[in-house]
Every structure is written in structure tokens, then in C-alpha cells.
Amino acid sequence: MTSSPTLPYRIGFGEDAHRLSGGRPLILGGVPIPNAEKGAVAHSDGDAVLHALADALLSGLALGDIGQYFPDTDAAHKGLDSAVIVARALDLVQERGYVPANVALVVTLDKPKLGPLRAAIAQNVALLLGLPESEVGVSFKTSEGLAPDHVQTRVTLLLVRSA
Ligand SMILES: Nc1ccn([C@@H]2O[C@H](COP(=O)(O)O)[C@@H](O)[C@H]2O)c(=O)n1
Ligand SMILES: C[C@@]1(CO)OP(=O)(O)OP(=O)(O)OC[C@H]1O
């Protein structure tokens, strides 16, 4: 980006997907999913919600994507807690005078049912962003059996100018 952003509002959007395989933990929005038979195949902890969230933060200010800041070729990022990625993206946004106002996220996953964890995921995402839980919308979808070994996430958020 060559110029300083001045708009009062900026929209961000992020997406992520990981293959699922047995014998790995599944973590979504920083919440370990207790009854998951399969977890994400990834270089980091594979948290597809937090990856999409970080990309949404970055995209709102045209700051690229998480792979540029945390390359999956860097051994230092092996098993990385994805909360670190979100914190870095949030810092970059705040340095430019913006803060998140609200977030909407969608997880597409066939199994297990995530409904009982909706509040925990919303609470943790809210905590990471410094927002009230009421500003984090969390939706779950199945793939209707089209992608049983796959988790897909999408996050949109609104950034507002704070300074
Ligand atoms: N892993 C999931 C996926 C979906 N849900 C909930 O099930 C309902 C129906 O989902 P469809 O994809 O068939 O429309 C919906 O209320 C989802 O919230 C879930 O809890 N966990
Ligand atoms: C997070 C990073 C880096 O560890 O790798 P993965 O955990 O594989 O996840 P991905 O969603 O492919 O994002 C790219 C990388 O930034």
C-alpha cells in the first residue's frame, strides 16, 4: 500500500481451509474441539478460524496476507499458536489508526457439531480483538457431505478509524 488510509470505515475479508486427518487436534477460534476425530493438517496449530480472522484484519487495510508475515517455510512457525498471528495482524491495523468494530465468521465442517461451542469461540475471538462478545457473530455449516475431510472458514469484519 502506497498511501495512508483515511476512510472512516474499512471492510476486511479472510478465508482459510485445512485438510483434516486423524491423530491431530482440531482448534477453532482458539478453542480445542473436544470430540473431533480429525484435526487440521498445518504448519502452525492449524486454527482455520484465526487464520481467516488475521487475513480479514490485514485485507481491510490492504496489508497482504498471513503467509507474508508467517511463511510456512519458516521452521520457527512450526506448531505456532495462531493467536500470535492474530495479535500481529491486530497490531498492524492499530498502528494505522483503526480498530475492529464487529466480526462475522462462518465455519464449514461436517463433524463434530460445533453448536455447543459457539459461545466459547465467540468469547475467545472477542477477547483476542478487545471486543464485547456481542460483536462477534459465529455461524456453522456442514458441507452436506461434500467435503468430509476439510474445514473451511470465512471471516468478514468492519474496521473503524480510531485516530
Ligand atoms: N459442524 C457443524 C455444522 C453445523 N452445525 C449446525 O447445524 C445446523 C445445520 O447446518 P447445515 O449446514 O445443515 O445448514 C446449523 O444450525 C448449524 O449451526 C453445527 O452445530 N456444527
Ligand atoms: C499459518 C501458516 C504459517 O505457519 O501455515 P499453516 O499453519 O499451514 O496455515 P495456512 O492457513 O496455510 O497459512 C499459512 C501460514 O502463514
What can be said about this structure in brief?
With 163 residues, the chain is α+β, with helices and mostly antiparallel strands. The protein is 26% helix and 31% strand.
C-alpha end-to-end distance? 19 Å
Q: Which structural class best describes the helix and strand composition? A: alpha+beta
Instruction: Write out the CATH superfamily name.
Output: 2-C-methyl-D-erythritol 2,4-cyclodiphosphate synthase
User: How would the global form be characterised?
Assistant: globular
CATH fold naming: 60s Ribosomal Protein L30, Chain: A
Q: Give a quick account of the main beta sheet: strands, pairing sense, barrel closure.
A: 5 strands, mixed
Strand count:
7
Tally of domains: 1
CATH architecture: 2-Layer Sandwich
Unreliable sequence segments? none
Bound molecules: the ligand Nc1ccn([C@@H]2O[C@H](COP(=O)(O)O)[C@@H](O)[C@H]2O)c(=O)n1, 2C-methyl-D-erythritol 2,4-cyclodiphosphate
β-strand percent reads 25-35%
Q: In the CATH hierarchy, what is the class?
A: Alpha Beta
Sheet with most strands: strand arrangement: 4-1-7-5-6
Radius of gyration: 15 Å
Mean pLDDT across all residues, rounded? 96
Helical region count?
4
The ordered H/E elements are EEEEHHHEHEE
Keywords: Isoprene biosynthesis, Lyase, Metal-binding
Enzyme class: lyase
Organism: Deinococcus puniceus
Subunit structure: Homotrimer.
